[in-house]
Design brief:
About 10% of the residues lie in helices and about 35% in strands. It is built from three helices and 16 strands. The protein has helices spanning about 150-155, 255-260, 265-275; strands at about 40, 55-60, 70, 75-80, 85-90, 100-105, 110-115, 135-140, 145, 160-170, 175-180, 195, 210-220, 225-235, 240-255, 290-305. Strands 8, 9, 10, 11, 12, 13, 14, 15 and 16 form a nine-stranded antiparallel β-sheet that branches. The chain has a four-stranded antiparallel β-sheet with strand order 1-2-5-4, with no helix packed on it. A hairpin with a 4-residue loop joins strand 4 (about 75-80) and strand 5 (about 85-90). The longest helix is centred in the last third of the chain and has 10 residues, at about 265-275. The relative contact order is 0.14.
Length: about 325
C-alpha cells in the first residue's frame, strides 16, 4: 500500500527480490567460498514503501556467523530463526520519503539493497482530526514474525478484519474502541459482539502510537478469544486516510482456546504451536506455561469515512443483534 507523492523516479535497483537483484558478488574463490545465498530481504530491493521504523532483514539459505550488515545509519545487528535471518534495527527512526542503501558483508560477497521509505512518519496535516475516525485493520494481510502456518491457525480464531475507532483524543493520547465486523458487511460492526475499550494509546511521538493492554476479550458470550496481553503500535498517515507499519504481539492462553475448539486441550494446542515454531511459554497472569505469543508485523488499516462504532457492553443484548451473534 503506497500513497506517497509521486515525486520519485524509479531508480536502477527497482526489481523483484531475489539474488539477481543484488550487486554482483565477488568471483574470487579464495575470498568467497561458501554456497550460502540470500533468500529474501525485508524491505524488498527497490521497495518504494518501506516503513520508517522497521528493521532490515536478510534471510539466508544457511546461517553465516561472519555476516555483518553495513548501512549509512547506526543500528543494532541481531539474528533469529537459528541464525537464518540477520536483522539490523536502526537506532533511530529513518526519515520518511528518503532513499536508503543497506548491504550485507557475508561469506559469499557484499550485496546491497536500495529502498525508499513511505510517507509514514511525516507530521500530521494541521486540519486532520482523528476524533471519531474508524479504521478497518486488514488482519488477513499481515506478516507473522515466526512460525510457518500461523496464518491458518490465526484465521480460525480471529476475524480477518477488525474495526478500530478513535473515540476520544486528549492530552493523555488516543482512546481506541475495537469492534468486529458483521459477516454480511465488513464495514459494519457486529452488534451481537461486545466492543473493547483499549487503554489509552501513547501519542507523544505522533504520528506514531503505542499501547499495552491486558485481558482483552473478543467475541460473544458463548465463544470468546481472550488475549492475556496485547501490545499494539502503528503510524497514522499525514492526512489520516490510513495507518501503516502496525505491529501487535498477542498473548493467547491455550486453556481458553481449548474451551472454544471442540476436542482440543492445552497440551495438544501447545504441541501444535511448538510444531509451528512458537512454543508455549509462561502466562502473565499465573506463570503457567500454557500461553503462546503471536508477533504480527505490517498491519495496515484504511479509514472508513462513513462508519462509526457504537459501544456494545453486553453480547447479544443490543436490539440490532437479532438475538444471536454472527460469530
Amino acid at each position: 500500500m503506497y500513497r506517497s507523492p509521486a515525486v520519485f523516479c524509479v531508480f536502477a535497483l527497482l526489481c523483484a527480490c531475489d539474488e539477481a537483484t543484488f550487486r554482483p558478488v565477488e568471483d574470487d574463490a579464495s575470498v568467497r567460498t561458501c554456497e550460502t545465498t540470500i533468500v529474501s530481504t525485508n524491505p524488498r530491493n527497490g521497495s518504494m514503501e518501506a516503513y520508517y521504523r522497521q528493521a532490515i532483514e536478510f534471510e539466508l539459505s544457511e546461517p553465516d556467523p561472519t555476516a555483518v550488515v553495513f548501512a549509512d545509519f547506526a543500528g543494532e545487528q541481531t539474528t533469529r530463526d537459528d541464525g537464518l535471518v540477520v536483522v539490523y534495527t536502526p537506532d533511530e527512526p529513518l526519515e520518511p520519503l528518503t532513499e536508503y542503501t543497506v548491504g550485507l558483508d557475508y561469506c559469499r560477497g557484499t550485496p546491497e539493497i536500495g529502498f525508499y521509505t513511505s510517507e509514514l512518519g511525516l507530521l500530521l496535516d494541521e486540519d486532520m482530526d482523528l476524533l471519531g475516525r474508524t479504521y478497518a485493520l486488514a488482519l488477513d494481510e499481515v506478516r507473522f514474525l515466526a512460525g510457518d502456518g500461523l496464518e491458518e491457525v490465526a484465521a480460525t480464531l480471529v476475524s480477518p478484519t477488525m474495526l478500530v475507532s478513535a473515540h476520544a483524543v486528549d492530552e493523555d493520547g488516543i482512546h481506541l474502541r475495537v469492534a468486529l465486523p458483521s459477516d454480511e458487511d465488513p464495514e459494519t460492526q457486529d452488534y451481537c459482539i461486545r466492543t473493547v475499550e483499549l487503554p489509552v494509546a501513547d501519542f507523544v511521538e505522533a504520528p506514531f502510537f503505542s499501547l499495552t493492554a491486558t485481558d482483552v476479550s473478543f467475541g460473544a458470550s458463548s465463544a470468546t478469544v481472550d488475549l492475556r496481553r496485547l501490545d499494539f503500535t502503528g503510524t497514522v498517515s499525514p492526512d489520516g486516510s490510513w495507518m501503516g507499519g502496525g505491529t501487535f504481539a498477542a498473548v493467547l492462553d491455550t486453556r481458553d482456546i481449548a474451551q472454544i475448539i471442540a476436542g482440543s486441550s492445552p497440551e495438544t494446542l501447545c504441541a501444535i504451536a511448538a510444531g509451528l515454531g512458537v512454543p508455549c511459554d509462561m502466562c502473565p497472569q499465573d506463570g503457567a506455561e500454557w500461553c503462546v505469543t503471536l508477533d504480527v508485523l505490517e498491519v495496515t488499516a484504511e479509514w472508513l469515512p462513513e462508519v462509526e462504532i457504537d459501544p456494545i457492553l453486553e453480547a447479544n443484548a443490543d436490539p440490532r443483534c437479532g438475538g444471536s451473534s454472527t460469530h
